[in-house]
Amino acid sequence: MLKSGRPAFHHFCRPGALALMAFVVTDSCIACKYTDCVSVCPMDCFVEGPNFLVIDPDGCIDCSMCVPECPVGAIYHDIDLPEHQRHFSELNATLAKHPGWKPITQVQSPLPGYEQWRHAEDKLAMLKTETS
Hints:
The chain is mostly loops and 132 residues long. The chain has a domain at 23-106: 2-Layer Sandwich (Alpha-Beta Plaits), CATH 3.30.70.20. The chain has helices at residues 88-95, 114-117, and strands at 23-25, 46-48, 53-55, 75-77, 102-103.
């Protein structure tokens, strides 16, 4: 069921697509954690960790509504991931089920200090997986 109360439609992958999931959050989100994307997700498939958001592949319907909402360009379709970020498909799927990580459906403020990390690249080493 969608947030609007309408029933969810059955989703079919694009012909020839062999993706594990539709959309993936990449390291541009780490240490920033903007949440504009969660407010437009009709399936509530975003999951929140200490300093990163992921998309639960079991819920994503490939609608792409989240992509333009991300101010740092952290969200890609799985088949469009840059080669050096392909591992984020599996990481999103794993962290979406990680103990302590919770679904997020409401917009929140970005993390303190997000301005300094907004344009940084290769932030995977900064990822925190354990909630305190």
